[in-house]
Specification:
536 residues; elongated; two-stranded parallel ribbon; 10% strand; alpha/beta
Length: 536
């Protein structure tokens, strides 16, 4: 089996970057300067090339044509057939068709782009699941997370993330984590998997009690799945704008990571909407590109690193490209840059965290660490809001996203530095520890020198020590250093053991200590171990 509990080692492979080149023909004919345009992907590709990251990845642009049956694995036949029929319509007829739906545009060339986006995410998923690649980033459009089983929506035709899930299922995955970082709730993905406990869907999105698009009651924290999948849908609604790194990282560490770790996925998909970034004209949030990359870094520790990042929204093209660059750095193995948290998370963010935990903690014991009076907010459990606020008035729907001029938007500094390049990983091995061994039982004693030798052999035989530096433990701790932790009486006693014969050592250990053995070299070996640990 692919995911036996005993499987510990996974061979690493390349990081994949996938582009559906036909996306350049998918455009909004009614609004040429619409922000969901091909320049989003063009800017991403340019920056990855400029910073040399694209050359370090395996780039895929050619894919097997998507079978209509694959599309119908996540979408109803009527929806698929209607979208595909657009290839035979005039642009006026296509515009009329799009008018049936919420915020949808396309041309007859959009069908090829949408199918190629699906083909891209499926191919990247397949290679990652089959261990031909370590991870991947699908820089595709049109995006997908608003499309549900019945209809396209919100600039999305087919749900790319849902298609990646189906491919992962085909490859043997039984538990898939989707983390949706787009500023808009991915209601399409939620609806597709709302009754499927094989998928844990976690979305962080601007909600403002329903005032922000898609204006849905189901986007709030109390919608947690149904049937056998209760507890497998998690919405973290942000109820005010301006949420930044402290808000997002508090969600990551206090709620998302405990939940994701207990779920223990076989595959991780990030619906990477970059409209949650600072400077985005639609999202109005303050998450930095570095803060965003910390999500990729932390989630990459799950599923043995099997991760696919799929492009969703993001309407400040330069800011989005910088964030993608930082995320790809992390996918390639670099640590993210430090972020400066100048303020605590907003009270509304804390409230949403506590509210979500309150409805999930009956299902997931990872939240048992929350005391009855939590450090996040002094509140008694349970704290489920008796009345969930929902303020949206359909008669006052805001205008749809229209023209946005990129030159007028905030930009981010492009940095090619890798924060960990100046550091080494050191592995210390005190080869002289063979002089500290049980004289009576030898290798039969469980704490014997063979332990460290087996560890070092396993590290050297694996890929875990690539790029690290081996050092010997050749620094001996001084008396003063030892006395910062231990008593003078203990140190003086150990010095006397250096002059004892074997019979005396046996007698001392049997009479005075529990689970201790000594040799005349024990103090010397211990000094080297402590000296290295204190000041390597």
């Amino acid at each position: 089996m692919l995911f036996e509990d005993g499987e510990k080692k996974r061979r690493t492979g390349p990081t994949l970057i996938g582009f559906n080149e036909s996306q350049s023909d998918h455009r909004n004919t009614a609004c040429p300067t619409h922000p969901e345009s091909s320049s989003r992907v063009d800017r991403i590709k340019e920056l990855l090339e400029q910073t040399g990251l694209l050359q370090k990845c395996t780039v895929l642009t050619k894919f097997l044509e998507t079978d209509d049956g694959d599309l119908k694995a996540t979408h109803q036949r009527e929806m698929v057939d209607e979208i595909l029929s657009a290839e035979k319509l005039s642009q006026a007829e296509i515009n009329s068709l799009c008018g049936k739906y919420d915020s949808v545009f396309m041309t007859k060339n959009s069908i090829k782009a949408a199918k190629e986006a699906v083909a891209c995410v499926r191919e990247l998923t397949h290679q990652i699941m089959k261990n031909k690649a370590q991870n991947g980033f699908a820089a595709v459009r049109p995006p997908g997370h608003h499309a549900d089983a019945k209809e396209p929506c919100g600039f999305c035709l087919f749900n790319n993330t849902a298609q990646a899930v189906e491919e992962a299922f085909n490859c043997g995955a039984d538990r898939i984590l989707i983390v949706d970082l787009d500023v808009h709730h991915g209601q399409g993905t939620q609806r597709i998997f709302y009754e499927d406990k094989r998928v844990l869907y976690f979305s962080i999105h601007r909600h403002e009690h329903g005032l922000f698009w898609p204006h849905l009651r189901e986007s709030d924290f109390d919608h947690i799945g149904s049937g056998d999948a209760v507890g497998y849908n998690a919405n973290l609604p942000l109820n005010e704008t301006g949420c930044g790194d402290s808000d997002y990282l508090s969600i990551l560490f206090q709620v998302l990571l405990p939940l994701a770790t207990q779920f223990d996925p076989h595959f991780v998909i990030v619906s990477a909407g970059f409209d949650s970034l600072q400077g985005d004209p639609v999202g109005k949030m303050s998450l930095t590109p570095d803060g965003y990359s910390h999500f990729i870094y932390q989630l990459k520790a799950l599923a043995q690193g099997r991760m696919l990042v799929v492009l969703e929204g993001g309407y400040n093209h330069q800011m989005s490209a910088v964030a993608v660059q930082k995320c790809v750095k992390v996918l390639l193995g670099h640590a993210p840059s430090l972020v400066s948290l100048s303020a605590p998370p907003k009270e509304s963010t804390v409230s949403s965290c506590v509210s979500l935990v309150s409805v999930l903690r009956h299902k997931w014991n990872c939240f048992d660490y929350f005391p009855s009076r939590t450090t996040m907010r002094l509140a008694d459990w349970p704290v489920i809001n008796s009345t969930v606020e929902y303020k949206y008035d359909p008669s006052k729907r805001p205008a749809d996203t229209g023209e946005i001029l990129q030159k007028q938007l905030e930009t981010a500094i492009v940095s090619e530095e890798n924060p960990t390049d100046a550091f080494e990983t050191l592995i210390f091995f005190n080869e002289g520890d063979s002089e500290h061994a049980c004289l009576e039982e030898g290798d039969g004693h469980p704490e014997n020198p063979r332990r460290t030798r087996k560890i070092m052999k396993a590290l050297r035989d694996s890929e875990a020590v690539q790029g690290s530096v081996e050092r010997k433990c050749d620094r001996s701790a001084t008396d003063d250093e030892i006395l910062t932790v231990h008593t003078r009486k203990m140190l003086d006693y150990l010095k006397t053991t250096e002059l004892m014969d074997d019979a005396q050592l046996f007698s001392e250990c049997d009479d005075d200590f529990n689970s201790i053995y000594l040799t005349r070299s024990t103090l010397k070996v211990a000094r080297n171990a402590a000296g290295t640990a204190k000041n390597p």
